[in-house]
Backbone:
Protein backbone atom coordinates (compact mmCIF):
# COMPACT_ATOMS: atom_id res chain seq x y z
CA UNK A 1 0.00 0.00 0.00
CA UNK A 2 1.23 3.49 -0.75
CA UNK A 3 2.13 5.87 2.08
CA UNK A 4 -0.90 6.42 4.27
CA UNK A 5 -2.55 9.77 3.90
CA UNK A 6 -2.82 11.67 7.14
CA UNK A 7 -5.11 14.59 6.61
CA UNK A 8 -4.07 16.57 9.64
CA UNK A 9 -0.36 16.49 10.46
CA UNK A 10 -1.34 17.34 14.03
CA UNK A 11 -2.72 13.81 14.47
CA UNK A 12 0.64 12.32 13.53
CA UNK A 13 2.39 14.68 15.92
CA UNK A 14 0.03 13.75 18.76
CA UNK A 15 0.44 10.04 18.03
CA UNK A 16 4.23 10.33 18.03
CA UNK A 17 4.29 12.45 21.15
CA UNK A 18 1.93 10.18 23.08
CA UNK A 19 3.84 7.07 22.03
CA UNK A 20 7.26 8.52 22.83
CA UNK A 21 6.03 9.74 26.21
CA UNK A 22 4.66 6.27 27.00
CA UNK A 23 7.89 4.58 25.93
CA UNK A 24 9.95 6.99 27.99
CA UNK A 25 7.85 6.44 31.10
CA UNK A 26 8.15 2.70 30.59
CA UNK A 27 11.92 2.89 30.20
CA UNK A 28 12.24 4.97 33.35
CA UNK A 29 10.25 2.42 35.36
CA UNK A 30 12.32 -0.46 33.99
CA UNK A 31 15.46 1.49 34.86
CA UNK A 32 14.16 2.11 38.38
CA UNK A 33 13.44 -1.61 38.75
CA UNK A 34 16.96 -2.42 37.56
CA UNK A 35 18.44 -0.05 40.15
CA UNK A 36 16.29 -1.59 42.89
CA UNK A 37 17.30 -5.13 41.88
CA UNK A 38 20.97 -4.12 41.85
CA UNK A 39 20.60 -2.44 45.24
CA UNK A 40 18.87 -5.48 46.75
CA UNK A 41 21.54 -7.76 45.29
CA UNK A 42 24.44 -5.71 46.69
CA UNK A 43 22.72 -5.30 50.05
CA UNK A 44 22.25 -9.04 50.41
CA UNK A 45 26.00 -9.47 49.78
CA UNK A 46 27.06 -6.80 52.24
CA UNK A 47 24.55 -7.06 55.05
CA UNK A 48 23.69 -9.92 57.38
CA UNK A 49 24.89 -10.97 60.80
CA UNK A 50 28.27 -9.57 59.85
CA UNK A 51 28.54 -6.46 57.73
CA UNK A 52 31.16 -6.31 55.01
CA UNK A 53 31.81 -2.99 53.29
CA UNK A 54 31.43 -2.69 49.54
CA UNK A 55 35.14 -2.81 48.76
CA UNK A 56 35.55 -6.12 50.66
CA UNK A 57 32.63 -7.59 48.73
CA UNK A 58 34.10 -6.31 45.47
CA UNK A 59 37.50 -7.87 46.24
CA UNK A 60 35.82 -11.23 46.98
CA UNK A 61 33.87 -11.04 43.74
CA UNK A 62 37.09 -10.24 41.86
CA UNK A 63 38.57 -13.43 43.30
CA UNK A 64 40.87 -11.99 45.97
CA UNK A 65 41.26 -13.67 49.32
CA UNK A 66 39.72 -11.62 52.12
CA UNK A 67 39.78 -13.23 55.58
CA UNK A 68 36.21 -13.93 56.76
CA UNK A 69 34.58 -12.28 53.79
CA UNK A 70 35.86 -14.89 51.36
CA UNK A 71 33.89 -17.56 53.15
CA UNK A 72 30.79 -15.62 54.22
CA UNK A 73 30.37 -13.57 51.06
CA UNK A 74 32.08 -15.81 48.51
CA UNK A 75 30.75 -19.18 49.62
CA UNK A 76 27.49 -18.35 51.40
CA UNK A 77 26.03 -15.05 50.30
CA UNK A 78 27.13 -14.79 46.67
CA UNK A 79 25.73 -18.11 45.35
CA UNK A 80 22.58 -17.49 47.34
CA UNK A 81 22.08 -13.98 45.96
CA UNK A 82 22.82 -15.11 42.42
CA UNK A 83 20.28 -17.92 42.77
CA UNK A 84 17.72 -15.47 44.19
CA UNK A 85 18.35 -13.22 41.21
CA UNK A 86 18.17 -15.90 38.52
CA UNK A 87 15.29 -17.86 40.08
CA UNK A 88 13.29 -14.66 40.59
CA UNK A 89 14.01 -13.70 37.00
CA UNK A 90 12.92 -17.15 35.79
CA UNK A 91 9.70 -17.22 37.81
CA UNK A 92 8.74 -13.67 36.84
CA UNK A 93 9.42 -14.21 33.15
CA UNK A 94 7.76 -17.62 32.91
CA UNK A 95 4.79 -16.49 34.99
CA UNK A 96 3.94 -13.47 32.90
CA UNK A 97 4.45 -15.50 29.72
CA UNK A 98 1.79 -17.98 30.76
CA UNK A 99 -0.54 -15.25 32.01
CA UNK A 100 -0.26 -13.34 28.74
CA UNK A 101 -0.54 -16.38 26.52
CA UNK A 102 -3.59 -17.78 28.32
CA UNK A 103 -5.00 -14.29 28.93
CA UNK A 104 -5.65 -14.92 32.61
CA UNK A 105 -3.65 -13.87 35.68
CA UNK A 106 -4.60 -17.15 37.38
CA UNK A 107 -2.90 -19.15 34.62
CA UNK A 108 0.55 -18.83 36.14
CA UNK A 109 2.76 -21.93 36.29
CA UNK A 110 2.75 -22.03 40.10
CA UNK A 111 -1.06 -22.11 40.15
CA UNK A 112 -1.65 -24.60 37.33
CA UNK A 113 0.71 -27.29 38.63
CA UNK A 114 3.85 -26.82 36.54
CA UNK A 115 6.02 -25.67 39.44
CA UNK A 116 4.49 -28.41 41.58
CA UNK A 117 5.44 -30.98 38.93
CA UNK A 118 9.04 -29.82 38.92
CA UNK A 119 9.10 -29.72 42.69
CA UNK A 120 7.61 -33.18 43.20
CA UNK A 121 9.99 -34.71 40.69
CA UNK A 122 12.98 -32.98 42.26
CA UNK A 123 11.94 -34.11 45.75
CA UNK A 124 11.56 -37.72 44.56
CA UNK A 125 14.89 -37.59 42.71
CA UNK A 126 16.77 -36.24 45.71
CA UNK A 127 15.04 -37.87 48.65
CA UNK A 128 14.30 -41.32 47.22
CA UNK A 129 16.86 -41.82 44.44
CA UNK A 130 19.65 -39.71 45.97
CA UNK A 131 20.31 -37.97 42.66
CA UNK A 132 22.01 -34.58 42.52
CA UNK A 133 23.01 -31.65 40.32
CA UNK A 134 22.20 -31.95 36.63
CA UNK A 135 20.18 -35.14 37.04
CA UNK A 136 17.74 -33.35 39.32
CA UNK A 137 17.35 -30.53 36.79
CA UNK A 138 16.72 -33.00 33.98
CA UNK A 139 14.11 -34.90 35.99
CA UNK A 140 12.45 -31.63 37.05
CA UNK A 141 12.26 -30.39 33.46
CA UNK A 142 10.83 -33.67 32.21
CA UNK A 143 8.21 -33.65 34.95
CA UNK A 144 7.31 -29.99 34.43
CA UNK A 145 6.88 -30.53 30.69
CA UNK A 146 4.88 -33.67 31.43
CA UNK A 147 2.54 -31.80 33.75
CA UNK A 148 2.17 -28.95 31.22
CA UNK A 149 1.26 -31.50 28.55
CA UNK A 150 -1.12 -33.32 30.90
CA UNK A 151 -2.96 -30.16 31.98
CA UNK A 152 -3.12 -28.94 28.39
CA UNK A 153 -4.44 -32.27 27.12
CA UNK A 154 -7.04 -32.58 29.88
CA UNK A 155 -8.21 -29.03 29.24
CA UNK A 156 -8.31 -29.38 25.45
CA UNK A 157 -11.72 -29.48 23.86
CA UNK A 158 -11.98 -27.54 20.58
CA UNK A 159 -9.16 -25.34 21.76
CA UNK A 160 -8.06 -24.51 25.26
CA UNK A 161 -10.47 -22.56 27.42
CA UNK A 162 -8.71 -20.62 30.16
CA UNK A 163 -11.01 -21.41 33.06
CA UNK A 164 -11.06 -25.15 32.48
CA UNK A 165 -7.29 -25.24 32.19
CA UNK A 166 -6.90 -23.30 35.43
CA UNK A 167 -9.28 -25.52 37.39
CA UNK A 168 -7.61 -28.67 36.09
CA UNK A 169 -4.22 -27.16 36.86
CA UNK A 170 -5.20 -26.30 40.43
CA UNK A 171 -6.38 -29.91 40.90
CA UNK A 172 -3.19 -31.36 39.46
CA UNK A 173 -1.18 -28.98 41.61
CA UNK A 174 -2.94 -30.09 44.80
CA UNK A 175 -2.41 -33.74 43.86
CA UNK A 176 1.31 -33.18 43.27
CA UNK A 177 1.71 -31.25 46.52
CA UNK A 178 0.29 -34.19 48.43
CA UNK A 179 2.73 -36.52 46.64
CA UNK A 180 5.58 -34.22 47.69
CA UNK A 181 4.39 -34.28 51.31
CA UNK A 182 4.18 -38.07 51.19
CA UNK A 183 7.68 -38.43 49.71
CA UNK A 184 9.13 -36.13 52.34
CA UNK A 185 7.39 -38.00 55.14
CA UNK A 186 8.80 -41.30 53.86
CA UNK A 187 12.36 -40.04 53.63
CA UNK A 188 14.81 -41.52 56.11
CA UNK A 189 16.75 -38.40 56.82
CA UNK A 190 13.67 -36.20 56.85
CA UNK A 191 14.66 -32.71 57.74
CA UNK A 192 12.71 -29.51 57.90
CA UNK A 193 15.07 -27.56 55.64
CA UNK A 194 14.61 -30.00 52.81
CA UNK A 195 10.87 -30.23 53.34
CA UNK A 196 10.46 -26.47 53.23
CA UNK A 197 12.48 -26.24 50.04
CA UNK A 198 10.20 -28.59 48.13
CA UNK A 199 6.96 -27.34 49.62
CA UNK A 200 7.35 -23.57 49.54
CA UNK A 201 10.82 -22.86 48.16
CA UNK A 202 13.97 -21.99 50.05
CA UNK A 203 17.44 -20.66 49.34
CA UNK A 204 19.00 -22.06 52.50
CA UNK A 205 22.27 -23.88 51.98
CA UNK A 206 22.62 -22.75 48.37
CA UNK A 207 25.91 -23.64 46.67
CA UNK A 208 27.23 -22.89 43.19
CA UNK A 209 26.15 -26.41 42.14
CA UNK A 210 22.51 -25.32 42.31
CA UNK A 211 23.08 -21.79 41.09
CA UNK A 212 25.03 -22.35 37.87
CA UNK A 213 22.37 -24.38 35.95
CA UNK A 214 19.71 -21.78 36.80
CA UNK A 215 21.89 -18.94 35.53
CA UNK A 216 22.58 -20.84 32.32
CA UNK A 217 18.86 -21.49 31.85
CA UNK A 218 18.14 -17.77 32.15
CA UNK A 219 20.90 -16.92 29.67
CA UNK A 220 19.66 -19.45 27.10
CA UNK A 221 15.87 -19.49 27.53
CA UNK A 222 15.39 -15.83 28.51
CA UNK A 223 16.31 -14.51 25.04
CA UNK A 224 14.07 -17.15 23.43
CA UNK A 225 11.07 -15.76 25.31
CA UNK A 226 12.08 -12.13 24.73
CA UNK A 227 12.23 -12.78 20.99
CA UNK A 228 8.54 -13.75 21.16
CA UNK A 229 7.47 -10.68 23.14
CA UNK A 230 5.65 -9.07 20.20
CA UNK A 231 3.90 -12.29 19.25
CA UNK A 232 2.76 -12.67 22.86
CA UNK A 233 1.35 -9.13 22.80
CA UNK A 234 -0.58 -10.04 19.65
CA UNK A 235 -1.77 -13.28 21.28
CA UNK A 236 -3.32 -11.30 24.12
CA UNK A 237 -5.87 -10.02 21.54
CA UNK A 238 -7.16 -13.56 20.98
CA UNK A 239 -5.90 -16.43 18.84
CA UNK A 240 -7.82 -15.38 15.72
CA UNK A 241 -6.67 -11.77 15.90
CA UNK A 242 -3.08 -12.90 16.46
CA UNK A 243 -3.28 -15.22 13.44
CA UNK A 244 -4.70 -12.42 11.34
CA UNK A 245 -1.73 -10.28 12.40
CA UNK A 246 0.65 -12.90 11.07
CA UNK A 247 1.49 -14.76 14.29
CA UNK A 248 1.87 -18.51 13.88
CA UNK A 249 -0.18 -19.24 16.94
CA UNK A 250 0.49 -22.94 17.49
CA UNK A 251 4.20 -22.70 16.80
CA UNK A 252 4.59 -19.66 19.05
CA UNK A 253 2.68 -21.45 21.78
CA UNK A 254 4.92 -24.53 21.65
CA UNK A 255 8.17 -22.53 21.68
CA UNK A 256 6.95 -20.29 24.47
CA UNK A 257 5.62 -23.14 26.63
CA UNK A 258 8.83 -25.16 26.33
CA UNK A 259 11.02 -22.15 27.14
CA UNK A 260 8.87 -20.99 30.07
CA UNK A 261 8.52 -24.49 31.50
CA UNK A 262 12.31 -24.91 31.18
CA UNK A 263 12.88 -21.73 33.19
CA UNK A 264 10.44 -22.85 35.87
CA UNK A 265 11.98 -26.31 36.06
CA UNK A 266 15.60 -25.15 36.39
CA UNK A 267 14.69 -22.56 39.01
CA UNK A 268 12.52 -25.02 40.93
CA UNK A 269 15.15 -27.76 40.85
CA UNK A 270 17.51 -25.33 42.60
CA UNK A 271 15.30 -23.30 44.91
CA UNK A 272 12.00 -25.15 45.09
CA UNK A 273 8.70 -23.66 43.92
CA UNK A 274 9.14 -20.26 45.59
CA UNK A 275 5.51 -19.56 46.35
CA UNK A 276 3.56 -17.09 44.21
CA UNK A 277 6.53 -15.30 42.62
CA UNK A 278 5.50 -16.37 39.11
CA UNK A 279 1.91 -15.50 39.96
CA UNK A 280 2.58 -12.06 41.45
CA UNK A 281 5.29 -10.61 39.19
CA UNK A 282 3.17 -10.10 36.07
CA UNK A 283 0.27 -8.26 37.72
CA UNK A 284 2.68 -6.08 39.74
CA UNK A 285 4.60 -5.25 36.55
CA UNK A 286 1.32 -4.50 34.75
CA UNK A 287 0.34 -2.13 37.55
CA UNK A 288 3.71 -0.36 37.24
CA UNK A 289 4.15 -0.02 33.46
CA UNK A 290 0.59 -0.49 32.13
CA UNK A 291 -0.61 -3.14 29.72
CA UNK A 292 0.34 -1.33 26.52
CA UNK A 293 3.70 -2.90 25.81
CA UNK A 294 5.32 -6.21 26.60
CA UNK A 295 5.47 -7.12 30.28
CA UNK A 296 8.27 -9.68 30.00
CA UNK A 297 11.23 -7.59 31.13
CA UNK A 298 9.41 -5.65 33.88
CA UNK A 299 7.91 -8.88 35.27
CA UNK A 300 11.30 -10.62 35.27
CA UNK A 301 12.79 -7.70 37.22
CA UNK A 302 9.86 -7.66 39.66
CA UNK A 303 10.36 -11.41 40.18
CA UNK A 304 14.07 -10.97 40.94
CA UNK A 305 13.32 -8.09 43.30
CA UNK A 306 10.61 -10.08 45.11
CA UNK A 307 12.89 -13.07 45.72
CA UNK A 308 15.90 -11.00 46.80
CA UNK A 309 13.90 -8.86 49.22
CA UNK A 310 11.78 -11.75 50.54
CA UNK A 311 14.84 -13.90 51.18
CA UNK A 312 16.65 -11.09 52.97
CA UNK A 313 13.54 -10.35 55.04
CA UNK A 314 13.04 -14.01 55.88
CA UNK A 315 16.63 -14.36 57.04
CA UNK A 316 17.09 -11.27 59.14
CA UNK A 317 13.81 -9.50 59.90
CA UNK A 318 12.49 -11.98 62.47
CA UNK A 319 13.86 -13.96 65.43
CA UNK A 320 13.48 -17.18 63.48
CA UNK A 321 14.84 -17.60 59.96
CA UNK A 322 12.03 -18.20 57.51
CA UNK A 323 12.60 -19.67 54.06
CA UNK A 324 11.94 -17.27 51.19
CA UNK A 325 8.80 -19.15 50.09
CA UNK A 326 7.09 -18.48 53.41
CA UNK A 327 7.57 -14.74 52.99
CA UNK A 328 6.40 -14.67 49.35
CA UNK A 329 3.53 -16.96 50.33
CA UNK A 330 2.32 -14.42 52.88
CA UNK A 331 2.34 -11.78 50.12
CA UNK A 332 0.79 -13.95 47.43
CA UNK A 333 -2.04 -15.75 49.21
CA UNK A 334 -4.21 -12.66 49.84
CA UNK A 335 -3.77 -11.58 46.23
CA UNK A 336 -4.87 -15.02 45.03
CA UNK A 337 -8.03 -14.77 47.13
CA UNK A 338 -8.69 -11.25 45.84
CA UNK A 339 -8.24 -12.38 42.24
CA UNK A 340 -10.55 -15.36 42.58
CA UNK A 341 -13.24 -13.20 44.16
CA UNK A 342 -12.87 -10.61 41.40
CA UNK A 343 -12.74 -13.17 38.59
CA UNK A 344 -15.97 -14.67 39.86
CA UNK A 345 -17.61 -11.32 39.46
CA UNK A 346 -16.35 -10.61 35.96
CA UNK A 347 -14.10 -12.70 33.73
CA UNK A 348 -10.89 -10.73 34.08
CA UNK A 349 -7.70 -10.92 32.10
CA UNK A 350 -4.22 -9.62 32.75
CA UNK B 1 -5.57 3.76 -6.08
CA UNK B 2 -4.11 0.53 -4.73
CA UNK B 3 -2.87 -2.58 -6.42
CA UNK B 4 -5.82 -4.85 -6.99
CA UNK B 5 -5.63 -8.31 -5.56
CA UNK B 6 -7.52 -11.37 -6.62
CA UNK B 7 -8.78 -13.64 -3.87
CA UNK B 8 -10.51 -16.80 -4.96
CA UNK B 9 -11.39 -20.27 -3.76
CA UNK B 10 -10.93 -23.36 -5.91
CA UNK B 11 -12.97 -26.46 -5.19
CA UNK B 12 -12.77 -25.52 -1.52
CA UNK B 13 -14.08 -27.96 1.06
CA UNK B 14 -14.17 -26.91 4.72
CA UNK B 15 -15.24 -28.61 7.89
CA UNK B 16 -14.65 -29.30 11.56
CA UNK B 17 -14.11 -32.82 12.84
CA UNK B 18 -16.47 -35.13 10.94
CA UNK B 19 -18.72 -32.31 9.79
CA UNK B 20 -18.32 -30.88 6.31
CA UNK B 21 -19.60 -27.31 6.24
CA UNK B 22 -18.78 -26.17 2.74
CA UNK B 23 -18.12 -28.44 -0.21
CA UNK B 24 -16.49 -27.76 -3.56
CA UNK B 25 -16.76 -23.98 -3.48
CA UNK B 26 -15.47 -22.02 -6.49
CA UNK B 27 -15.61 -18.30 -5.93
CA UNK B 28 -13.74 -15.20 -7.00
CA UNK B 29 -14.05 -12.07 -4.89
CA UNK B 30 -14.37 -8.78 -6.75
CA UNK B 31 -11.28 -6.63 -6.22
CA UNK B 32 -11.90 -3.15 -4.90
CA UNK B 33 -15.52 -3.86 -4.07
CA UNK B 34 -17.57 -4.59 -0.94
CA UNK B 35 -18.69 -8.20 -0.81
CA UNK B 36 -21.09 -9.35 1.86
CA UNK B 37 -21.60 -12.99 2.81
CA UNK B 38 -25.08 -13.87 4.06
CA UNK B 39 -26.64 -17.15 5.08
CA UNK B 40 -28.46 -18.92 7.88
CA UNK B 41 -26.76 -19.76 11.17
CA UNK B 42 -24.13 -22.51 11.01
CA UNK B 43 -24.01 -22.54 7.21
CA UNK B 44 -20.32 -21.70 7.19
CA UNK B 45 -20.09 -17.93 6.78
CA UNK B 46 -17.46 -17.46 9.46
CA UNK B 47 -15.82 -20.72 8.43
CA UNK B 48 -15.36 -19.40 4.91
CA UNK B 49 -13.98 -16.10 6.18
CA UNK B 50 -11.57 -17.90 8.52
CA UNK B 51 -10.36 -20.13 5.74
CA UNK B 52 -9.83 -17.23 3.35
CA UNK B 53 -7.60 -15.60 5.97
CA UNK B 54 -5.53 -18.72 6.64
CA UNK B 55 -7.06 -19.44 10.06
CA UNK B 56 -8.63 -22.72 8.97
CA UNK B 57 -6.89 -25.18 6.68
CA UNK B 58 -9.07 -26.55 3.87
CA UNK B 59 -10.11 -30.20 3.75
CA UNK B 60 -9.69 -30.09 0.02
CA UNK B 61 -9.18 -27.43 -2.62
CA UNK B 62 -7.43 -24.15 -1.97
CA UNK B 63 -7.72 -20.44 -1.34
CA UNK B 64 -5.64 -18.44 -3.78
CA UNK B 65 -4.50 -14.84 -3.44
CA UNK B 66 -2.83 -13.37 -6.53
CA UNK B 67 -1.96 -16.81 -7.81
CA UNK B 68 -0.45 -17.99 -4.50
CA UNK B 69 -2.01 -20.47 -2.20
CA UNK B 70 -2.95 -18.64 1.00
CA UNK B 71 -2.13 -21.56 3.27
CA UNK B 72 1.39 -21.76 1.84
CA UNK B 73 2.12 -18.04 2.10
CA UNK B 74 4.28 -17.01 5.09
CA UNK B 75 1.97 -15.74 7.84
CA UNK B 76 3.41 -12.24 8.13
CA UNK B 77 3.63 -11.73 4.40
CA UNK B 78 -0.04 -12.62 4.04
CA UNK B 79 -0.91 -10.34 6.97
CA UNK B 80 0.53 -7.39 5.05
CA UNK B 81 -1.97 -7.91 2.23
CA UNK B 82 -4.99 -9.42 3.92
CA UNK B 83 -6.42 -8.40 7.28
CA UNK B 84 -9.16 -10.00 9.33
CA UNK B 85 -11.20 -8.62 12.18
CA UNK B 86 -12.63 -11.65 13.99
CA UNK B 87 -16.07 -11.68 15.53
CA UNK B 88 -15.00 -11.41 19.15
CA UNK B 89 -11.46 -10.15 19.59
CA UNK B 90 -10.15 -9.98 23.17
CA UNK B 91 -9.51 -6.55 24.67
CA UNK B 92 -6.67 -6.74 27.20
CA UNK B 93 -7.68 -5.06 30.45
CA UNK B 94 -6.71 -1.41 30.61
CA UNK B 95 -5.07 -1.21 27.18
CA UNK B 96 -5.26 2.26 25.63
CA UNK B 97 -6.66 2.96 22.18
CA UNK B 98 -3.24 4.01 20.92
CA UNK B 99 -1.58 0.81 22.15
CA UNK B 100 -4.31 -1.40 20.72
CA UNK B 101 -4.23 0.27 17.31
CA UNK B 102 -0.43 0.04 17.38
CA UNK B 103 -0.63 -3.75 17.64
CA UNK B 104 -1.97 -3.73 14.10
CA UNK B 105 1.60 -2.98 13.04
CA UNK B 106 2.76 -6.47 14.02
CA UNK B 107 3.13 -7.88 10.48
CA UNK B 108 5.36 -4.92 9.56
CA UNK B 109 7.72 -5.42 12.50
CA UNK B 110 10.40 -7.89 13.44
CA UNK B 111 11.17 -9.38 16.85
CA UNK B 112 13.60 -6.71 18.05
CA UNK B 113 13.00 -3.97 15.47
CA UNK B 114 12.34 -0.43 16.61
CA UNK B 115 9.11 1.48 16.21
CA UNK B 116 9.42 3.65 13.10
CA UNK B 117 7.94 6.91 11.82
CA UNK B 118 6.09 4.78 9.28
CA UNK B 119 4.39 2.90 12.12
CA UNK B 120 3.32 6.18 13.71
CA UNK B 121 1.99 7.43 10.36
CA UNK B 122 -0.03 4.24 9.84
CA UNK B 123 -1.52 4.48 13.33
CA UNK B 124 -2.36 8.17 12.88
CA UNK B 125 -4.04 7.48 9.53
CA UNK B 126 -6.05 4.62 11.04
CA UNK B 127 -7.22 6.81 13.93
CA UNK B 128 -8.29 9.56 11.53
CA UNK B 129 -10.10 7.23 9.18
CA UNK B 130 -12.13 5.81 12.05
CA UNK B 131 -12.64 9.17 13.82
CA UNK B 132 -11.02 7.85 16.98
CA UNK B 133 -8.20 10.39 17.26
CA UNK B 134 -9.77 11.99 20.32
CA UNK B 135 -9.98 8.61 22.06
CA UNK B 136 -6.23 7.92 21.73
CA UNK B 137 -5.49 8.07 25.47
CA UNK B 138 -8.63 6.29 26.63
CA UNK B 139 -8.78 2.72 27.88
CA UNK B 140 -10.55 0.58 25.28
CA UNK B 141 -12.66 -1.26 27.87
CA UNK B 142 -14.21 2.04 29.00
CA UNK B 143 -15.56 2.92 25.55
CA UNK B 144 -19.07 2.42 24.21
CA UNK B 145 -19.74 -0.52 21.91
CA UNK B 146 -19.72 1.64 18.79
CA UNK B 147 -16.50 3.41 19.75
CA UNK B 148 -14.85 0.11 20.62
CA UNK B 149 -15.74 -1.40 17.25
CA UNK B 150 -14.30 1.65 15.50
CA UNK B 151 -11.10 1.22 17.50
CA UNK B 152 -10.84 -2.43 16.48
CA UNK B 153 -11.37 -1.45 12.86
CA UNK B 154 -8.60 1.14 13.34
CA UNK B 155 -6.37 -1.70 14.60
CA UNK B 156 -7.09 -3.66 11.43
CA UNK B 157 -6.48 -0.53 9.31
CA UNK B 158 -3.09 0.08 10.94
CA UNK B 159 -2.18 -3.26 9.42
CA UNK B 160 -2.48 -1.45 6.04
CA UNK B 161 -3.85 -4.31 4.02
CA UNK B 162 -5.51 -3.94 0.65
CA UNK B 163 -8.03 -6.60 1.59
CA UNK B 164 -10.00 -6.47 4.81
CA UNK B 165 -12.20 -9.31 6.03
CA UNK B 166 -14.65 -8.66 8.86
CA UNK B 167 -16.74 -11.21 10.72
CA UNK B 168 -20.03 -9.60 11.74
CA UNK B 169 -18.59 -6.17 12.49
CA UNK B 170 -22.00 -4.84 13.56
CA UNK B 171 -22.98 -7.48 16.11
CA UNK B 172 -24.00 -6.08 19.51
CA UNK B 173 -24.28 -2.55 18.12
CA UNK B 174 -27.47 -0.55 18.08
CA UNK B 175 -28.80 0.53 14.69
CA UNK B 176 -27.14 3.96 14.57
CA UNK B 177 -23.75 2.47 15.39
CA UNK B 178 -24.30 -0.28 12.81
CA UNK B 179 -24.85 2.37 10.15
CA UNK B 180 -21.85 4.33 11.41
CA UNK B 181 -19.56 1.29 11.09
CA UNK B 182 -20.89 0.33 7.66
CA UNK B 183 -20.59 3.91 6.39
CA UNK B 184 -17.03 3.96 7.65
CA UNK B 185 -16.20 0.76 5.76
CA UNK B 186 -17.79 2.20 2.63
CA UNK B 187 -15.64 5.33 3.00
CA UNK B 188 -12.54 3.14 3.18
CA UNK B 189 -13.60 1.21 0.14
CA UNK B 190 -14.29 4.35 -1.88
CA UNK B 191 -11.33 6.47 -0.80
CA UNK B 192 -8.64 3.79 -0.74
CA UNK B 193 -10.01 1.04 -2.92
CA UNK B 194 -9.76 -1.42 -0.04
CA UNK B 195 -11.45 -4.68 -0.94
CA UNK B 196 -13.90 -5.46 1.85
CA UNK B 197 -15.42 -8.84 2.53
CA UNK B 198 -17.72 -9.18 5.50
CA UNK B 199 -20.28 -11.42 7.09
CA UNK B 200 -23.50 -9.63 8.01
CA UNK B 201 -26.61 -10.99 9.70
CA UNK B 202 -29.02 -8.28 8.69
CA UNK B 203 -30.20 -8.90 5.12
CA UNK B 204 -31.33 -5.35 4.56
CA UNK B 205 -28.06 -3.83 5.68
CA UNK B 206 -26.29 -6.42 3.53
CA UNK B 207 -28.40 -5.46 0.51
CA UNK B 208 -27.79 -1.79 1.12
CA UNK B 209 -24.03 -1.84 1.60
CA UNK B 210 -22.88 -4.71 -0.62
CA UNK B 211 -21.67 -4.33 -4.18
CA UNK B 212 -21.60 -8.11 -4.44
CA UNK B 213 -23.48 -10.67 -2.39
CA UNK B 214 -22.61 -14.26 -1.59
CA UNK B 215 -25.53 -16.29 -0.27
CA UNK B 216 -24.56 -19.54 1.44
CA UNK B 217 -27.06 -22.30 1.99
CA UNK B 218 -26.25 -25.39 4.01
CA UNK B 219 -23.56 -27.34 2.18
CA UNK B 220 -22.34 -24.55 -0.03
CA UNK B 221 -23.04 -21.69 -2.35
CA UNK B 222 -26.59 -20.75 -3.29
CA UNK B 223 -25.87 -17.65 -5.31
CA UNK B 224 -23.15 -15.08 -5.85
CA UNK B 225 -23.33 -11.92 -7.89
CA UNK B 226 -24.59 -8.37 -7.82
CA UNK B 227 -26.90 -7.47 -4.98
CA UNK B 228 -29.90 -7.18 -7.30
CA UNK B 229 -29.26 -10.62 -8.77
CA UNK B 230 -28.80 -12.38 -5.45
CA UNK B 231 -31.23 -10.69 -3.09
CA UNK B 232 -34.46 -12.24 -4.37
CA UNK B 233 -37.47 -13.90 -2.78
CA UNK B 234 -36.12 -17.18 -4.12
CA UNK B 235 -32.77 -16.70 -2.34
CA UNK B 236 -34.47 -15.89 0.95
CA UNK B 237 -36.64 -18.98 0.59
CA UNK B 238 -33.73 -21.30 -0.21
CA UNK B 239 -31.23 -19.91 2.26
CA UNK B 240 -33.49 -19.20 5.23
CA UNK B 241 -36.51 -21.39 4.45
CA UNK B 242 -38.74 -18.33 4.79
CA UNK B 243 -41.23 -16.58 2.54
CA UNK B 244 -40.69 -12.88 1.91
CA UNK B 245 -41.38 -9.99 -0.35
CA UNK B 246 -38.45 -8.13 -1.85
CA UNK B 247 -39.22 -4.55 -2.80
CA UNK B 248 -37.19 -1.52 -3.73
CA UNK B 249 -35.85 0.31 -0.70
CA UNK B 250 -37.22 3.87 -1.01
CA UNK B 251 -34.12 5.22 0.75
CA UNK B 252 -31.34 3.50 -1.19
CA UNK B 253 -33.00 2.03 -4.27
CA UNK B 254 -31.51 -1.32 -3.22
CA UNK B 255 -33.55 -4.48 -2.58
CA UNK B 256 -35.42 -4.54 0.73
CA UNK B 257 -36.49 -7.83 2.24
CA UNK B 258 -39.79 -7.97 4.06
CA UNK B 259 -40.20 -11.28 5.85
CA UNK B 260 -43.58 -13.00 5.83
CA UNK B 261 -44.24 -14.72 9.10
CA UNK B 262 -47.41 -16.29 10.44
CA UNK B 263 -48.63 -13.11 12.08
CA UNK B 264 -49.11 -9.48 11.16
CA UNK B 265 -49.44 -10.11 7.43
CA UNK B 266 -52.03 -8.61 5.08
CA UNK B 267 -53.78 -10.58 2.35
CA UNK B 268 -52.14 -8.44 -0.30
CA UNK B 269 -48.69 -9.30 1.03
CA UNK B 270 -49.20 -13.01 0.78
CA UNK B 271 -50.83 -12.99 -2.65
CA UNK B 272 -48.60 -14.85 -5.05
CA UNK B 273 -46.57 -16.61 -2.39
CA UNK B 274 -47.01 -20.21 -1.33
CA UNK B 275 -50.42 -21.41 -0.08
CA UNK B 276 -49.12 -22.26 3.38
CA UNK B 277 -47.90 -18.75 3.86
CA UNK B 278 -51.16 -17.36 2.53
CA UNK B 279 -52.95 -18.91 5.50
CA UNK B 280 -51.56 -16.15 7.68
CA UNK B 281 -53.60 -13.79 9.78
CA UNK B 282 -55.45 -11.00 8.09
CA UNK B 283 -54.31 -8.27 10.33
CA UNK B 284 -53.04 -5.02 8.98
CA UNK B 285 -50.30 -3.23 10.79
CA UNK B 286 -48.62 -0.10 9.62
Residues:
Amino acid sequence: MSAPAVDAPSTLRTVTRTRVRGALRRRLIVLALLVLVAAAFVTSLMAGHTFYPAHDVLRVVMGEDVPGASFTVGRLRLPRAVLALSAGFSFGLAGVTFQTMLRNPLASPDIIGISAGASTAAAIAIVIFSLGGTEVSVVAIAAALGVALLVYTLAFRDGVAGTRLILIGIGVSALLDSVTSYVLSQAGEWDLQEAMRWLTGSLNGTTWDETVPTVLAVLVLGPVLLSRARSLSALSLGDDTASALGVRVERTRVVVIVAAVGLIAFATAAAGPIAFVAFLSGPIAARLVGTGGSLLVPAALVGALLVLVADFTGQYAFDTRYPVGVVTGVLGAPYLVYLIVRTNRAGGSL
Amino acid sequence: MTASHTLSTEDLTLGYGDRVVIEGLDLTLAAGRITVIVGANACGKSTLLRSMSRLLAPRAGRVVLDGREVHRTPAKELARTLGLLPQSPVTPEGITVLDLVGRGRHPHQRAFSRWTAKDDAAVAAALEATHTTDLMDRAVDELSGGQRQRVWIAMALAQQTDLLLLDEPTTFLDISHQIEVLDLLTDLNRSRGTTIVMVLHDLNLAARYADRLIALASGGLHAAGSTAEVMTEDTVRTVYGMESRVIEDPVSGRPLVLPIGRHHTTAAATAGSTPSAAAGHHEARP
Notes: The CA atoms of residues 200 and 298 of chain A lie 24 Å apart. The two ends of chain A are 34 Å apart (CA to CA).
